[in-house]
Amino acid sequence: MTGLSNFDSGHTDMVHDAQLDYYGRRLATCSSDRTVRVFDIVGDQHHHLAELRGHEGPVWQVCWAHPKFGSILASCSFDHRVIIWKEGQGNQWQQAYISPRNLHTASVNGISWAPYELGLILACASSDGSVSLLEYKLDGTWEVNKLPGGHTIGCTAVSWAPANAPGALVSTKQPQSGPVKRLVTSGCDNLIKVWRYGEMGWTEEEVLAGHTDWVRDAAWAPSLGLPKNTIASASQDGQVFVWGERHSGGGWERKLVHDFKAPVWRVSWSTTGSILAVSDGNNNVTLWKESMDGIWQEINL
């Protein structure tokens, strides 16, 4: 998107999210106007492709699936629903799946597709405190499951671990056969939780405490270039932490990236996991990188 200037999205209310697809050629946006819009991006030019209607409330987040599964986009809303959209011939989009009305009893705040090695699985975080998993099966149906527990007051975000965990070869835990299924959730209970799928199904593996207010976002870093599992968290308390999983002895160690003195809404990793983008309540987006001595420093562009 280098050189792409601001452009009119066409939304008639606040835009809450904007996500590029795997190739960086499509941009999806969503808004309080209850719509999702899809754009074609070529150089500094953009072309509106589609407006997707189906939600009955503000749409908080959009998320592209891996292109291995085709052109698939998911969206979540204040209306308690998740819609999975699939592009057909001639840029015709259709609703491939709508979550059942009883799946969540409050706003669905965050969604995240699993690594493609695990199949087509969407994790959904809701204000009702639960996290649901929507998995596409070979017979064309969607299987619905929920994590055993969640966050008592409400769940704000969910993020998958890389399928091939960077610490797997030196981990003290039992060796894994095949891809690893783990994810992280954040909540209004000021906590971050790490979950793992094993023989007994999904279990709560770790609770990370350190924030003093709602944790607004949690993002698991890609494993490229990183020697260990790493999670970033952003909170209403103004602090951003980076958590690193210890190779020996278990547990996670916490480092403060920065205290922004204002609520922090989102954290996002670069493709290599070496740069962290932070958006805060002062309408600023800053980039951070860990120095050789382990201190996180802002990158001035």
Can you describe what's shown?
By secondary structure, this protein is mostly beta strands. It folds into two domains: 1-56 and 69-98; 102-299, Methylamine Dehydrogenase, Chain H (7 Propeller). It is 0% helix and 53% strand. The protein has no helices and 24 strands. It has strands spanning 15-20, 26-31, 35-42, 45-53, 59-64, 72-77, 82-87, 93-98, 108-113, 121-126, 130-136, 142-150, 155-160, 182-187, 191-198, 201-209, 215-220, 230-235, 239-245, 252-259, 264-269, 275-280, 285-290, 296-299. The chain has a four-stranded antiparallel sheet, with no helix packed on it. A hairpin with a 3-residue loop joins strand 18 and strand 19 (239-245). The radius of gyration is 19 Å and the shape is globular. The two termini are 16 Å apart. Belongs to the WD repeat SEC13 family. Required for protein transport from the endoplasmic reticulum to the Golgi apparatus. It is found in: Nucleus, Nuclear pore complex. Keywords: mRNA transport, Nuclear pore complex, Nucleus, Protein transport, Repeat, Translocation, Transport, WD repeat. It holds the Pfam family WD40.
